Automatic annotation (TrEMBL):
Highest taxon of source: Bacteria
Domain Sodium symporter small subunit residue range list: 8-84
Native species: Orrella daihaiensis
InterPro entries (UniProt xref): Na_symporter_ssu
One Pfam family linked to the record: DUF4212
Transmembrane annotation, as ranges: 21-40, 52-70
Claim: Iron is one of the keywords in the record: no
Keywords: Membrane, Transmembrane, Transmembrane helix
Protein name per its UniProtKB record: DUF4212 domain-containing protein
Amino acid sequence: MSEKYDSHAYWRATLSLLTKILIVWALVSYGAGIIFAGALDSVMLGGYPLGFWFAQQGSIYVFIALIFYYRKKMGEIDRKFDVDEK
């Protein structure tokens, strides 16, 4: 494999990961907190409607989980393409 091929594959993997994370972020922040809030409000969590909970608390937990997921997956991608810091 040439160096150029490796860099293209690396960036393709990185952009694929970022795309997936941004889709989850959009679904949680806009979907659960705004668009689907009415449907989610029929379920109660901790005494609050689920749509409200996602808009206020749940999205923060998901965002933190996404940070750790990104760190783990990016480390795997770096090791796969041998660009990790040793």
